[in-house]
Amino acid sequence: MADGHRGITPQREDFSAWYNELVTKAGLVDRGPVRGTMVIRPYGYRIWELLQADLDERIKATGHQNAYFPLLIPESYLRREAEHIEGFAPELAVVTHAGGKDLDEPLVIRPTSETIVGEMMAKWISSHRDLPLLLNQWSNVVRWELRPRLFLRTTEFLWQEGHTAHIAADDAMAETMLALAFYQDLATQTAAMSPIAGEKTPGERFAGAERTFTIEAMMRDGRALQAGTTHFMGENFARAFGIQYTSSAGELRFCNTTSWGMSSRMVGGVIMTHGDDRGLVLPPALAPYQVVIVPLGRGDQAQDVLPAAIDLAARLTAAGVRTHLDDREQLSPGFKFNDWELRGVPIRLELGPRDLAAGTSVLARRLGEGKEAVPLASITERVVDELSAFQDMLLARATEFRELHTATVDTWPQFVAAVARGWARAFHCGQKACEDEIKAETAATPRCIPLDGEPETGLCIRCDLPSAYGKRLVFGRAY
Ligand SMILES: [Zn+2]
User: Is residue 309 part of a domain?
Assistant: First the structure.
């Protein structure tokens, strides 16, 4: 293994090793004792909290309410929707023994909550006046993972799951698209990722859904990360659980339902979208510390520096900037610079005796060369502007990277080359067997039918049959 920066394998050499080493060295996460589980450490959990707070606000602003459903679900509930149980059976963790004896009915640890929410919705909804019912819950779920990856695919993970019931199919479809916009906006505006939004092909749909939509983001190794999905269930779950309402004309009808989820894998997405060989690069909107202040100077020289640094930190905090003063005594400035670079803090401010005498502080950004002296008198406004510019720069960089690594292709050799370095926009026949062949040969799968794709037809990239879907699909290798 080549000796990378601070002992982290360079991305180009082994992206996967880079990721695994970085998430632990930066203090985000550790492996739990049970295979596939993770311990989210405070620095990593803060990133999740910031994502969570942002999304929660979007969810509540559109009339949804948070609720909480039990972790344990009777196994029989999952069997009521045939496709649902078939899809989730291989990943279920089941409790068969509790309270010192075997249980009469096994209990599933929720892999997702459509079934138990459906059961309760059937109880709560009776009239058209009860609709729409717009619920969300923040919780953990368990899906037994054979190939776990920290944050990206863990046996237990954190997420939110929205569950809604509506009168008309059109209303439920509008809700499905509204939730997709939550995710697209969160990922773009807050996480500075540049995902594309689209619909999943039938082979990639959620178990039990009529239509599934997704946002797909490109990581810096060219792979896709599915970062949020929304599902239009039609009447499938309403029929399985008896979610019915009496219409204004007095007729008994089934509801149309939706569900949608975003999880802690988004934290992994942020790391793999922005990080580099020097460590994390955090978008200011998600950075636990947006600014770190490092006081310089030793002994007598430092006497006046620390009070000034404390004052500077207080001014920035009062301006709403998440600021950390690194006043650790035993560590050299160089060590601290490297440490905060590794941890992805967007802006570093250095304050030494000479700076103080000049009435300035030295500002350094996590990306880009060069430092500059900034007058202390106007530093708060300047830092706020710098953070905003840094956020915009990361989004622009992610967008440029995705565009550079996406190719529109019409021949098989072009396709193979495109998915080896990123994504391919290509026609497909819509046949599952053909999708499977493509996957077997290239490891690429259809990520989505992009919403913004031009209406177009052509011949399947693999088998030359006429294309389905009326536009090109986006293919890529995925996490
Ligand atoms: Zn084909």
Answer: yes
Model-wide pTM > 0.85: yes
Cα(91) to ligand 1 centroid in Å equals 30
The closest of 175, 150, 183 to 19, measured between CA atoms, is 150
Compute, in angstroms, the gap from residue 404 CA to the centroid of ligand 1.
26
Are residues 467 and 340 part of one domain? no
- Please tell me the distance between residue 466's alpha carbon and the centre of ligand 1 in angstroms: 8
Domain count, the chain: 3
The pLDDT, as a whole number, for residue 330 is 87
The answer to whether 477 and 223 are in contact (CB under 8 A) is yes
215 Cα: distance to centroid of ligand 1 (angstroms):
24
Ligand 1 centroid – CA 219 distance (Å): 27
Q: Ligand 1 centre from 418 Cα, in Å?
A: 17
Residue 398 maps to a domain:
no
Q: What is residue 5's predicted lDDT score, i.e. its pLDDT?
A: 56
- Same domain, yes or no, for 145 and 17? yes
Distance (Å) of CA 423 to CA 130, 396, 450, 456: 44, 18, 12, 18
**How far, in Å, is the centroid of ligand 1 from the Cα of 455?**
18
Ranges of residues in the chain whose predicted pLDDT is under 50: 1-4
399-452 confidence digits (pLDDT tens)? 999 999 999 999 999 999 999 999 999 999 999 999 999 999 999 999 999 999
Distance (Å, whole) CA 41 – CA 31: 10
